[in-house]
Amino acid sequence: MKIYEMKVAPNPRRVRMFLAEKGIAMEYVQLDLGKGENLSPEFREKNPMAKVPVLELDDGTCISESMAICRYFEELQPEPALMGRTPLEKAQIEMWQRWIEFYFLMPTGMCFQHSSGYFKDRMTPVPEWGAVCRDNVVKFFERLNRHLEHHRYLVGDQFSIADITALCTVDFNKVNQLGILPEQTHLQRWYKEVSSRPSAKA
The pTM is what? Predict the structure, then answer.
């Protein structure tokens, strides 16, 4: 098996952290998205959406989308459970996972793409949309801080895929010059704990 990725991108990092938590070794193949290596006909055969990461199994089967890749390994190796054990845990973790993806990770990416011009050779940046997304990211930092006042992790006392996605999003926001504010003490406490996990260095 191998995973095609770009190490500095947030979605591949989510998968690397997930696999590191489970102790699963993997071969990683690096692509340079800035140079458009993901746009080649060969890579589009693996993922028509031309996005990373992509998991390629030994028989040539390819699985794209970060959560689909993580789900595959969660089913293969249930422990440690990162997507919940009980029906309630699974539902709550998925709820938070989707909230973070839709209202934190996606606007983070859109702020970067539409404000930086990094992909201006293949898209039309809309600076106004980048600014709207930036405001939404700032609001979600505060939402996380309020929630974590009463929770160790995003879902109770269980570290999960939702925490992985949140951490990767917080860190990637450095490209947007956004981060946790000094007064967001609950988010600061959570960040210190989750970023100290060995998997965060994967």
Answer: 0.96
